[in-house]
Amino acid sequence: MNATARRRALDLLFQLLAMLILCLALGSLAALVATVWSDGADRLSWDFLTGFPSRRAEDAGIWHALAGSMFVILTTGGLAVPIGVASAIYLEEYGTRSLSARIIEFNITNLAAVPSIIYGLLGLWLFVRVMAMGRSVLAGASTLALLVLPVVILSTREALRAVPSSIRESSYALGATKWQTVWHQVLPVALPGILTGVILALSRAIGETAPLISIGALTFVAFAPDSLWSPFTVLPIQIFNWVSRPQLAFQANAAAAILVLLALLLTMNAAAIWLRDRYQKKLV
After folding, report:
1. Alpha-carbon dihedral angle through residues 20, 25, 26, 30, given to the nearest 10 degrees
2. Separation CA 214–CA 79 (nearest Å)
3. Residues 269, 199: contact at Cβ < 8 Å?
4. For the whole model, what pTM was predicted?
5. What CATH number does the domain located at 48-283 have?
């Protein structure tokens, strides 16, 4: 067997190995989803979605946790997206290759890999105690905003970096300032990538439990939050609460809540794909 045939055989073997690993991963995921569906599908109903917690499993609902999740994630987006996008624009378009800029970039890259529990402890110290926000929606959203901020900055920088330099040069040639170039030329082209990164980052945040437990988010709340200063709970914490109970009926409630959370995550990911395709078509 010559060298070319050997390389082709190794390439084919690698493809088969990668396909096998992919099938195993997808098979495991399908088995988990099927198990959750069989346990919780019967509990899915309008009353379950709009109900409040109860000591009786058959009367318990998730509206308080679902509303809390939406409230927290919208506030998280309102805090993280403007700061993250503005920081990425500054670092990519205005920042120089100075020592301070390289240190900031190095720290942002490292922060993206920090465990979420560390952000929870930081939020407990900074937002709950120092800034006296208490166990409120604003404290939880601020903690999650810190968690997703590095991801938003990195994804936005990659989207800005992917914009061809010829677009900037053409804008400058027509007499536009740097900010006019960034606002009217660069950002519209980078918008699909920015939106995709932002929604995927928020999808990660909506499933986080450890940071919110660390700041003291409640496991039993009998009402939906109505302001930024309200106590709250979220779907992952409610699922954790039900799973920790020995009664099988609460286990079924937890499975049903997992299905709702999966549907919410799939909706957010589908929105990312739709927005990316829509804005890409506008640019063609």
Report:
1. 130
2. 20
3. yes
4. 0.85
5. 1.10.3720.10
In tens, the pLDDT along 196-211 reads: 888 888 888 888 888 8
Say which residues have a Cβ less than 8 Å from residue 83's Cβ, sequence separation at least 6: 145, 149
Residue with tokens 């055989």: 9
Domain residue limits, the chain:
3-43, 48-283
Token look-up 């799939």 returns 266
Q: What is the DSSP letter of 204?
A: H
Please name the residues in contact with 76: beta carbons below 8 A apart, sequence gap of 6 or more: 141, 144, 145, 148, 202, 205
- The residue written with tokens 């170039």 in the block is 181
Lowest model confidence (mean pLDDT) among 75-79, 113-117, 129-133, 217-221: 217-221
Give whole-number Cα distances, 183 to 95, 188, 189, in Å. 16, 8, 10
Strands (E), the chain: none
